Amino acid sequence: MxxxxxxxxxxxxxxEAAVEAIDLVPLMEAAFVDYSEGRAQASxxxxxxxxxxxxxxxxxxxxARGGDxxxxxxxxxxxxxxxxxxxxxxxxxxxxxxxxxxxxxILLDEGRLTDLRTAAAGAVAARRLAPKDPGAIAVLGAGxxxxxxxxxxxxxxxxxxxxxxxxxxDAAERLVEEAQALGFEARAVDTANAAAREARxxxxxxxxxxxLLAAADIAPGTHITAVGADTTEKGELAADLIARADxxxxxxxxxxxQRGELRRAPERAVVVELGEVIAGRAVxxxxxAEITLCDLTGIAPQDLAIAAAVAAALGHP
Length: 317
Hints:
alpha/beta; ornithine cyclodeaminase, domain 1; Rossmann fold; 2 domains; eight-stranded parallel sheet; seven-stranded mixed sheet; about 25% strand
Protein backbone atom coordinates (compact mmCIF):
# COMPACT_ATOMS: atom_id res chain seq x y z
CA MET A 1 0.00 0.00 0.00
CA UNK A 2 1.31 3.44 -0.89
CA UNK A 3 1.93 5.80 2.00
CA UNK A 4 0.32 8.52 -0.12
CA UNK A 5 -2.89 6.61 -0.76
CA UNK A 6 -5.94 8.79 -0.32
CA UNK A 7 -8.27 7.35 2.27
CA UNK A 8 -11.79 7.07 0.83
CA UNK A 9 -14.49 8.92 2.73
CA UNK A 10 -17.85 7.18 2.32
CA UNK A 11 -20.83 9.44 3.04
CA UNK A 12 -24.28 8.65 4.27
CA UNK A 13 -26.13 8.82 0.94
CA UNK A 14 -23.78 6.29 -0.67
CA UNK A 15 -23.81 4.13 2.45
CA GLU A 16 -27.63 4.10 2.53
CA ALA A 17 -27.77 3.01 -1.11
CA ALA A 18 -25.20 0.26 -0.59
CA VAL A 19 -26.69 -1.19 2.59
CA GLU A 20 -30.11 -1.57 0.95
CA ALA A 21 -28.72 -4.41 -1.14
CA ILE A 22 -27.15 -6.26 1.82
CA ASP A 23 -29.08 -8.94 3.72
CA LEU A 24 -28.18 -7.90 7.25
CA VAL A 25 -29.75 -10.77 9.20
CA PRO A 26 -27.34 -13.53 8.06
CA LEU A 27 -24.49 -11.02 8.28
CA MET A 28 -25.31 -10.36 11.93
CA GLU A 29 -25.81 -14.06 12.66
CA ALA A 30 -22.31 -14.77 11.36
CA ALA A 31 -20.89 -11.93 13.47
CA PHE A 32 -22.54 -13.31 16.62
CA VAL A 33 -21.23 -16.82 15.94
CA ASP A 34 -17.70 -15.54 15.24
CA TYR A 35 -17.73 -13.64 18.52
CA SER A 36 -19.06 -16.53 20.61
CA GLU A 37 -16.61 -18.99 19.06
CA GLY A 38 -13.62 -16.71 19.59
CA ARG A 39 -12.95 -15.90 15.95
CA ALA A 40 -13.72 -12.21 16.51
CA GLN A 41 -12.49 -10.08 19.37
CA ALA A 42 -14.00 -6.90 20.77
CA SER A 43 -12.33 -4.23 22.85
CA UNK A 44 -13.72 -2.96 26.13
CA UNK A 45 -16.31 -0.27 25.47
CA UNK A 46 -15.11 3.32 25.85
CA UNK A 47 -17.73 5.68 27.16
CA UNK A 48 -18.45 9.32 27.94
CA UNK A 49 -21.70 10.31 29.65
CA UNK A 50 -23.13 13.84 29.56
CA UNK A 51 -25.70 15.40 31.86
CA UNK A 52 -26.53 18.78 30.34
CA UNK A 53 -27.62 18.22 27.67
CA UNK A 54 -28.20 14.48 28.31
CA UNK A 55 -26.11 12.34 26.02
CA UNK A 56 -23.44 9.71 25.61
CA UNK A 57 -20.59 8.69 23.34
CA UNK A 58 -19.38 5.12 22.94
CA UNK A 59 -16.20 3.82 21.31
CA UNK A 60 -16.11 0.18 20.18
CA UNK A 61 -13.51 -1.77 18.21
CA UNK A 62 -13.31 -5.26 16.73
CA UNK A 63 -11.15 -7.51 14.62
CA ALA A 64 -11.65 -10.98 13.18
CA ARG A 65 -9.13 -13.80 12.98
CA GLY A 66 -7.82 -13.99 9.43
CA GLY A 67 -9.80 -10.93 8.39
CA ASP A 68 -8.49 -8.13 6.18
CA UNK A 69 -9.95 -5.29 8.25
CA UNK A 70 -10.56 -4.12 11.77
CA UNK A 71 -12.95 -1.40 12.87
CA UNK A 72 -13.10 1.43 15.37
CA UNK A 73 -16.50 3.05 15.82
CA UNK A 74 -17.68 6.17 17.60
CA UNK A 75 -21.44 6.32 18.27
CA UNK A 76 -23.21 9.20 20.00
CA UNK A 77 -26.69 9.71 21.40
CA UNK A 78 -27.93 13.13 22.52
CA UNK A 79 -31.54 12.85 23.57
CA UNK A 80 -32.58 16.53 23.38
CA UNK A 81 -31.55 16.75 19.72
CA UNK A 82 -35.06 16.14 18.31
CA UNK A 83 -36.22 19.31 20.08
CA UNK A 84 -33.81 21.17 17.80
CA UNK A 85 -34.71 19.27 14.64
CA UNK A 86 -31.64 17.02 14.85
CA UNK A 87 -31.39 13.22 15.01
CA UNK A 88 -30.66 11.86 18.46
CA UNK A 89 -27.87 9.56 17.24
CA UNK A 90 -24.78 10.09 15.13
CA UNK A 91 -21.29 8.70 14.66
CA UNK A 92 -18.83 7.19 12.22
CA UNK A 93 -16.87 4.00 11.57
CA UNK A 94 -13.17 3.73 10.71
CA UNK A 95 -11.91 0.69 8.84
CA UNK A 96 -8.22 -0.22 9.06
CA UNK A 97 -6.00 -2.67 7.18
CA UNK A 98 -5.49 -5.64 9.50
CA UNK A 99 -2.07 -6.41 7.99
CA UNK A 100 -0.54 -2.95 8.38
CA UNK A 101 -2.78 -0.95 10.70
CA UNK A 102 -3.16 1.71 8.01
CA UNK A 103 -6.53 3.48 7.64
CA UNK A 104 -8.57 1.86 4.86
CA UNK A 105 -11.84 3.82 4.73
CA ILE A 106 -13.85 6.35 6.72
CA LEU A 107 -17.60 5.71 6.86
CA LEU A 108 -19.46 8.91 7.76
CA ASP A 109 -22.71 7.08 8.33
CA GLU A 110 -24.00 9.47 11.05
CA GLY A 111 -24.94 6.48 13.20
CA ARG A 112 -27.11 4.86 10.54
CA LEU A 113 -25.13 1.61 10.37
CA THR A 114 -25.35 1.22 14.15
CA ASP A 115 -29.11 1.68 13.95
CA LEU A 116 -29.45 -0.87 11.14
CA ARG A 117 -27.22 -3.52 12.66
CA THR A 118 -29.12 -3.19 15.95
CA ALA A 119 -32.46 -3.67 14.20
CA ALA A 120 -31.10 -6.68 12.33
CA ALA A 121 -29.93 -8.16 15.65
CA GLY A 122 -33.48 -7.77 16.94
CA ALA A 123 -34.73 -9.76 13.97
CA VAL A 124 -32.14 -12.47 14.69
CA ALA A 125 -33.28 -12.66 18.33
CA ALA A 126 -36.96 -12.88 17.35
CA ARG A 127 -36.32 -15.55 14.73
CA ARG A 128 -34.35 -17.70 17.18
CA LEU A 129 -36.24 -17.07 20.42
CA ALA A 130 -39.77 -15.69 19.92
CA PRO A 131 -42.87 -17.90 19.84
CA LYS A 132 -44.07 -18.71 16.35
CA ASP A 133 -47.41 -17.01 17.00
CA PRO A 134 -46.92 -14.23 19.57
CA GLY A 135 -50.45 -12.88 19.15
CA ALA A 136 -49.15 -9.33 19.20
CA ILE A 137 -45.87 -7.44 19.15
CA ALA A 138 -45.39 -4.78 21.84
CA VAL A 139 -42.92 -2.01 21.08
CA LEU A 140 -41.83 0.28 23.89
CA GLY A 141 -40.45 3.53 22.54
CA ALA A 142 -41.19 5.39 19.33
CA GLY A 143 -37.81 6.60 18.11
CA UNK A 144 -35.67 5.56 15.18
CA UNK A 145 -34.81 2.18 16.68
CA UNK A 146 -38.46 1.35 17.36
CA UNK A 147 -39.30 1.99 13.71
CA UNK A 148 -36.35 -0.02 12.45
CA UNK A 149 -37.09 -2.94 14.76
CA UNK A 150 -40.60 -3.21 13.36
CA UNK A 151 -39.35 -3.09 9.78
CA UNK A 152 -36.76 -5.78 10.56
CA UNK A 153 -39.32 -7.99 12.30
CA UNK A 154 -41.71 -8.03 9.37
CA UNK A 155 -39.84 -10.76 7.38
CA UNK A 156 -39.21 -13.00 10.40
CA UNK A 157 -42.70 -13.23 11.93
CA UNK A 158 -46.17 -13.59 10.49
CA UNK A 159 -47.62 -11.56 13.37
CA UNK A 160 -49.04 -8.27 12.14
CA UNK A 161 -50.70 -6.94 15.30
CA UNK A 162 -48.64 -4.23 17.02
CA UNK A 163 -49.10 -2.30 20.26
CA UNK A 164 -47.02 0.85 20.75
CA UNK A 165 -46.24 2.67 23.95
CA UNK A 166 -44.05 5.76 24.29
CA UNK A 167 -43.73 8.48 26.90
CA UNK A 168 -45.16 10.96 24.41
CA UNK A 169 -48.50 9.96 22.94
CA ASP A 170 -47.92 11.97 19.75
CA ALA A 171 -44.71 10.03 19.09
CA ALA A 172 -46.52 6.74 19.65
CA GLU A 173 -49.25 7.77 17.21
CA ARG A 174 -46.66 8.63 14.56
CA LEU A 175 -45.08 5.21 14.95
CA VAL A 176 -48.54 3.64 14.66
CA GLU A 177 -48.95 5.37 11.29
CA GLU A 178 -45.55 4.14 10.12
CA ALA A 179 -46.31 0.61 11.30
CA GLN A 180 -49.58 0.66 9.41
CA ALA A 181 -47.71 1.75 6.28
CA LEU A 182 -45.52 -1.36 6.72
CA GLY A 183 -48.63 -3.56 6.76
CA PHE A 184 -49.11 -3.93 10.50
CA GLU A 185 -52.40 -3.50 12.33
CA ALA A 186 -51.15 -1.09 14.99
CA ARG A 187 -52.50 1.03 17.81
CA ALA A 188 -51.09 3.10 20.66
CA VAL A 189 -51.72 2.15 24.27
CA ASP A 190 -51.58 4.26 27.43
CA THR A 191 -49.05 2.27 29.47
CA ALA A 192 -46.05 0.02 28.91
CA ASN A 193 -47.73 -2.60 31.11
CA ALA A 194 -50.83 -2.67 28.91
CA ALA A 195 -48.72 -3.21 25.79
CA ALA A 196 -46.74 -6.03 27.39
CA ARG A 197 -49.72 -7.88 28.79
CA GLU A 198 -51.29 -8.31 25.35
CA ALA A 199 -48.14 -9.41 23.52
CA ARG A 200 -45.89 -12.45 23.51
CA UNK A 201 -43.13 -10.65 21.61
CA UNK A 202 -41.91 -7.49 23.32
CA UNK A 203 -39.20 -5.15 22.04
CA UNK A 204 -37.91 -2.42 24.35
CA UNK A 205 -36.06 0.44 22.64
CA UNK A 206 -35.90 3.29 25.17
CA UNK A 207 -33.04 4.95 27.11
CA UNK A 208 -35.05 4.50 30.32
CA UNK A 209 -33.18 4.62 33.62
CA UNK A 210 -36.14 3.36 35.66
CA UNK A 211 -37.73 -0.02 34.80
CA LEU A 212 -40.74 0.04 32.50
CA LEU A 213 -41.76 -3.60 32.98
CA ALA A 214 -41.86 -5.95 35.96
CA ALA A 215 -42.42 -9.70 36.30
CA ALA A 216 -46.17 -9.25 36.84
CA ASP A 217 -46.49 -7.71 33.36
CA ILE A 218 -45.15 -10.74 31.51
CA ALA A 219 -47.26 -13.76 30.58
CA PRO A 220 -45.85 -17.29 30.17
CA GLY A 221 -44.60 -17.93 26.65
CA THR A 222 -43.32 -14.39 26.10
CA HIS A 223 -40.05 -13.37 24.48
CA ILE A 224 -38.47 -9.99 25.24
CA THR A 225 -35.77 -8.38 23.14
CA ALA A 226 -34.20 -5.61 25.24
CA VAL A 227 -32.35 -3.08 23.11
CA GLY A 228 -32.23 0.14 25.11
CA ALA A 229 -29.79 -0.57 27.96
CA ASP A 230 -26.17 -0.16 26.93
CA THR A 231 -24.75 1.79 29.88
CA THR A 232 -24.72 1.19 33.62
CA GLU A 233 -27.22 4.06 33.99
CA LYS A 234 -29.96 2.50 31.85
CA GLY A 235 -32.45 -0.26 32.53
CA GLU A 236 -35.88 -1.01 31.05
CA LEU A 237 -36.63 -4.22 32.97
CA ALA A 238 -37.08 -4.76 36.70
CA ALA A 239 -34.85 -7.22 38.52
CA ASP A 240 -37.80 -9.49 39.35
CA LEU A 241 -38.62 -9.83 35.64
CA ILE A 242 -35.04 -10.81 34.83
CA ALA A 243 -35.04 -13.33 37.69
CA ARG A 244 -38.32 -14.81 36.45
CA ALA A 245 -37.09 -15.43 32.89
CA ASP A 246 -36.54 -19.10 32.10
CA UNK A 247 -33.81 -18.40 29.56
CA UNK A 248 -31.37 -15.48 29.46
CA UNK A 249 -29.56 -14.77 26.21
CA UNK A 250 -27.08 -11.98 25.45
CA UNK A 251 -25.09 -10.84 22.46
CA UNK A 252 -22.13 -10.82 24.85
CA UNK A 253 -22.26 -12.36 28.33
CA UNK A 254 -19.49 -10.07 29.53
CA UNK A 255 -20.93 -6.88 28.10
CA UNK A 256 -24.51 -7.61 29.19
CA UNK A 257 -23.36 -8.36 32.73
CA GLN A 258 -21.37 -5.12 32.80
CA ARG A 259 -23.67 -2.65 31.06
CA GLY A 260 -26.91 -4.31 29.93
CA GLU A 261 -30.13 -5.45 31.55
CA LEU A 262 -28.36 -8.57 32.78
CA ARG A 263 -26.20 -6.65 35.23
CA ARG A 264 -29.23 -7.12 37.53
CA ALA A 265 -29.53 -10.85 36.83
CA PRO A 266 -28.94 -13.24 39.74
CA GLU A 267 -25.23 -13.98 40.09
CA ARG A 268 -25.74 -17.69 39.48
CA ALA A 269 -28.12 -17.24 36.54
CA VAL A 270 -27.09 -19.08 33.39
CA VAL A 271 -26.61 -16.71 30.46
CA VAL A 272 -26.03 -18.08 26.96
CA GLU A 273 -24.88 -16.06 23.99
CA LEU A 274 -26.92 -15.51 20.87
CA GLY A 275 -24.02 -16.82 18.80
CA GLU A 276 -24.16 -20.08 20.76
CA VAL A 277 -27.87 -20.41 20.05
CA ILE A 278 -27.36 -19.75 16.34
CA ALA A 279 -24.53 -22.29 16.17
CA GLY A 280 -26.67 -24.91 17.93
CA ARG A 281 -24.42 -25.06 20.99
CA ALA A 282 -27.12 -23.70 23.30
CA VAL A 283 -30.89 -24.02 23.44
CA UNK A 284 -32.94 -21.04 22.33
CA UNK A 285 -36.66 -21.38 22.98
CA UNK A 286 -37.63 -24.58 24.78
CA UNK A 287 -41.15 -25.23 26.04
CA UNK A 288 -44.03 -23.09 24.89
CA ALA A 289 -44.57 -21.50 28.31
CA GLU A 290 -40.97 -20.35 28.67
CA ILE A 291 -40.16 -16.69 29.15
CA THR A 292 -37.06 -15.81 27.17
CA LEU A 293 -35.06 -12.60 27.34
CA CYS A 294 -32.39 -11.46 24.89
CA ASP A 295 -30.22 -8.57 26.03
CA LEU A 296 -28.70 -6.74 23.06
CA THR A 297 -26.00 -4.31 24.16
CA GLY A 298 -24.46 -4.09 20.69
CA ILE A 299 -21.11 -5.75 20.02
CA ALA A 300 -18.30 -4.43 17.88
CA PRO A 301 -18.06 -7.50 15.60
CA GLN A 302 -21.47 -6.42 14.28
CA ASP A 303 -19.92 -3.07 13.35
CA LEU A 304 -17.00 -4.75 11.65
CA ALA A 305 -19.32 -6.97 9.62
CA ILE A 306 -21.57 -4.17 8.39
CA ALA A 307 -18.77 -1.65 7.78
CA ALA A 308 -16.68 -4.12 5.76
CA ALA A 309 -19.71 -5.22 3.72
CA VAL A 310 -20.68 -1.64 2.88
CA ALA A 311 -17.12 -0.63 2.01
CA ALA A 312 -16.79 -3.64 -0.29
CA ALA A 313 -20.12 -2.84 -1.96
CA LEU A 314 -18.81 0.68 -2.63
CA GLY A 315 -15.63 -0.61 -4.25
CA HIS A 316 -13.29 -0.63 -1.23
CA PRO A 317 -13.03 -4.30 -0.19
